């Protein structure tokens, strides 16, 4: 068949071809006339059939945004491409082409039915994005490795598979293997898999399947753990106190502090360091817990606020709806009265009345809206004050805790300095008992050096603490500003939208009335 | 001072007996109704006057003769046991004691009414009141507690209204806590002053109205109020007093046996107590009843307040506070009644009445003849036992407009055990509206059906049980020109459908039997919000104006909007100037969109939408038509059900359930037949010979002898035959065995092992058979003479052959 096609001139998928196809496959009869009259936009097309057209290259399809079904079978396509925009595609038929590798399907997340029958594919691959895949047709290809089947295990919805005409289908174990590895499969090579076969297959491959399942489970568990950890960290981050529930900050202080590490080998320093670490970590944990608590409080505050605002808006909307319903009722009856009226002056009078009604409705609705705006503004301001206060309090408390950290550091620094100087004295006197590492001993040349070293370590530590504090403060402040900004902006948007809506409705009503006027006059 | 006779329900008695005792008392009461019937203030004055007359006459005559004769027609005295008709010496003694007591009493308290001590029973024998009580335990759990027991007694005796069965619904009020960011209410710009003025004016008007209303009411009340009772404080009545202490009774209270209600001892309607009795003793109230029963102290052990008639049978009460174990002592009292009482003074003789027996049927029937009528002010309640009425009617409440009960306001009828699950039928006579209420389980899932007539296309409301119908219909309202249906839980979210009809057009010369449905003018359908669709594509209401060929659509309102999209389609089939048919023009679809969308402006879209609506319109019309048919069907079914009114019978109801009855009877028949067969085994050996003789005649001696001889010889022959039969079988078996053995010896060499096995097993079996036959033969030989002799003996003793005996005797 392909040979036949080869002998013909390949065609290009251009606008004309697509237009022709769309026109042919569009609505028929009366609707078709209408369609012709108006023309069909490519983005409104839901289904497109482009078979037996000698297409070599898929192209020009980017406009068909809403396409659900695309048939490109019986062409001479060699590469899957140009389908990136068709994200709504559910059915894709690429059978009887010359495709060699599966590719270019990564955006088609809604695809359920994929046919690649009679191509030159040798490996099942690059289908990970198609999570909804139900039907996969890969018959008459060149798949020769059984392990390709294992790849298909990830498609939980896959029910129908065809692989006949591939080298692997020659294998003695072919059917059993597939049934065992894809237990949810219902149809294989267009035949229903009976329960007996399934059982047999399962029994036959139980050992390897179990092993596979075990591996998959392990993987799953690991993924879940990771996700849980990630979520936990996210939660901490929203509270701005991530990594403070342990010795992370302390460790980071010593991570870049070579002098400090060296000095820790001094006699008595390790105990000192231990005690220092314990105290430091306790304060960190305090900050952490306080942060979480505050986060909870802020959340509750925000929730109450949004709930109240939501309620207020809802109530206001209900009132508005009620007003409109009342108006419509009246309007309808007066419209029908107008239609029944025959005297022109009367009609004009009534129309005037109607338009007065419309403008009254407008006033009412606008008043409601203005009321709501005022009320909300007040509430929002109150919330803003409260949240800013909260954030301020939080920052203050965190800062005082951080100051404690700093105190600890200073204290530690003094102690360390003391020990260092006394050690220096001992070294100078030469009655040092313990052996010191060489690089540490190198520091004890004179007093300046050692004081500098200890000072440098101290500076690094302070810097780390300051950095952490700064980070926390800036982040929470920016969060606060963003939140308040967003609330304000949302409110403005809401207001704009509502005003637009009201205007639109009123305009519609007015124009309806005007039309009536003209038509009456014409009559 | 009113004459009141009181019976005490003693709590010290064994707990179990309490209910039973009351049942017993009830029976006594029933028998003695003419004596006791002066009751309740509500009876008619005429009657009361007569009663009073009777009573007054009674008071003047001596005690023994004061009681009117018992109406005998209801009770067959002859069947009553002896204890009813006579007094034992002990009872005589008791009566003397009572007379003595009475004399002393009338001497000491001449101004008080005589005591109610020993009325005549149904056999006109004076019996002491306490002995008419007999504590009895009934097998019905309902009679175990006082409230249900009293209810039963009141039902069993006279018509007693139940308390209003309609309970007030509990209103739950949830208090809403003000939230922090609740918005402030909008500023109120109205004038307070004006409002206040308005309110004041309103209040004045209301006050005026109220006043008028009150006056009107008062006038009515005045008119209705019963005349002041001339006999106030003179009527007598018996009721039950339950004393606290046992069975978790927290305080003393009264039970009025005629209504079954309990009253506090403080109740104003009980004006005083003359005397109390239980099955052990009799007490006279020595306390002043000027303040009704409110100040009475029910401490029966206090001789100053309560004068007892018999000493020591019951100490109780006073000791209650002193001895904690008095209850146990009292129980002992009951058990060792005879022994202990001998030590003390005279004790109460045992009750002379029989144990009361209430059959399950009577218990179920409750009221006499299963029917009871209670008359209320402006209302009448009738009650029937279940299954008494063939249509399952169990009670009917009729309310009247006037006091004379002539103009019926409404009737409520309650049904039970109906196959069609009808529970309550409510007929409002003023509006002529009938409402049927059904329990769950009607084949058409009916819940309520209210109508004025059973003719179709009239005002009617049919409600259905939710979830019971596949189409989710819960209510259908009909008037002459409209039909409204309410739905719930449908996959297409339809919630409401309303159809307007035009009067039928007369069809001329239409011979077809097809129905002529009323033309539909308008169909309105409303839908719930479908969460799967965006609001601007989710239709909230669509109106098919069939006459104008117009379709109106209203869409749902988006969450954050206050206006909803609308669309109106006009279907006109016209031709344009060139003669082409116009398929769709922009003016055929008028739409207002909250957020204008591009694709909806297209004619194609509108055309497709309109086509879709056309199809929907057809479906809706069909639906309406089907609904009409269904109404017809329901009406037909209801009529059939009303006509048939079959009742359901529980499979546990052995009495009424035909199937189980049949089964039981069949079982009984089988049992009976089995029994007959057993009887038959004792065969009549003479029957075949007697049959030869003419029946009914007495045998002559010669005949008897011949009969006997024939019978015996026949029996002998039979024995011989049997012996021969066994013998022949034995011989046959032996011969066969021999043959087989012979065959075996001849072919022994050529036999296969299987054949040999076969042969051997045959041999052993044959030997077994031969042995058995041999044994049977031997036993037969032994038994045959004995059997013969036994028969001969029997024949001698047979009464039919009495002639023989005569000779030999």
TrEMBL record, chain A:
It comes from the Eukaryota. SMART domains: LRR_SD22. The keyword Nucleus does not apply. GO terms for cellular component: cilium. Keywords: Cell projection, Cilium, Coiled coil, Cytoplasm, Cytoskeleton, Flagellum, Leucine-rich repeat, Repeat. InterPro entries: Cilia_flagella_integrity (IPR050576), Leu-rich_rpt (IPR001611), LRR_dom_sf (IPR032675). Pfam families: LRR_9. Its main location: cytoplasm. Component of the nexin-dynein regulatory complex (N-DRC). Interacts with DRC1. Interacts with TCTE1/DRC5. Interacts with DRC7. PANTHER family: DYNEIN REGULATORY COMPLEX SUBUNIT 3, PROTEIN PHOSPHATASE 1 REGULATORY SUBUNIT SDS22-RELATED. Belongs to the DRC3 family. Component of the nexin-dynein regulatory complex (N-DRC) a key regulator of ciliary/flagellar motility which maintains the alignment and integrity of the distal axoneme and regulates microtubule sliding in motile axonemes. This is Dynein regulatory complex subunit 3. It comes from Theropithecus gelada (Gelada baboon). The lineage of its organism: Eukaryota, Metazoa, Chordata, Craniata, Vertebrata.
From TrEMBL, chain B:
Keywords: Coiled coil, Cytoplasm, Cytoskeleton. It is found in: Cytoplasm, Cytoskeleton. GO terms for biological process: flagellated sperm motility. Residues 1-23, 321-345 are annotated as: Disordered. GO terms for cellular component: cytoskeleton; motile cilium. It comes from the Eukaryota. Residues 336-345 have a biased composition (Basic and acidic residues). This is Dynein regulatory complex subunit 7.
